[in-house]
Structure prediction request, 255 residues.
Amino acid sequence: WLQTYRPEWQVHVTAMTGGLTSINAAGPRSRDLLNRLVDDVDLSPDAFPYFSVRTGTVAGVADCIIWRIGFTGELSYEVHVPSGYALHVWETLLATGEDLGVAPFGVEAQRILRLEKGHYIVGQDTDGLSKAPTAGLGGLVKLDKPDTVGLPELKHAYERTDLPVLVGVQPDDPMIVPEEASQIVDGETNTILGRITSSRMSPTLGRSVCLAQVDPSLAAPGTTITVLLGNGSRIPATVQQHHAHVDPEGARQRV
Prediction:
């Protein structure tokens, strides 16, 4: 981007991603675990709040990047380790946290947790028509800043009323999990008014949970929508107040 916007700067970009391995320590005891292996970073909530980053030593490995973020909705840290030391850090985390009940968790478990929390996957729950105000990110955008690259487009997005809106959806029958990409239709005309973008059965709630892109006319909480399933049947579902089905206040990840 800088090479096209400021060609006179002669910017060169070196990809560093391949030199780092990311390990996600998540759960109510994740801070306890990292405190045993990190001695040069204060992990207390006040010193290291949610959505912040530090650089420190983990399991004796220097220059690790520690983010207090995560995709699970729980207290969580992403630890980015120089790849040559990744196996050492991984094995040390498991051994050190044995009495805490530490265990590996897979991508499918992460995807269920993120959906319960309402975290969306870019490119699955969003698309080319998704904009900050319709994807639940309106509070992160400051339109009163001095002119910046992309500001006219952002302002235009806030003025539009025809863009699809990302919402949380709950099937009225909690045991039905609509297939992802199931169409949301007008019950009388079959006009397509949206689609289910993510869906899973929630072990936490014992029911299905979904995210969906819907026409603005259906985006208000409490609105009943019609979902067309792959077998041709239709089910009613209700638009929820939040994207998050679990802990919408974010209390778990901010402790």
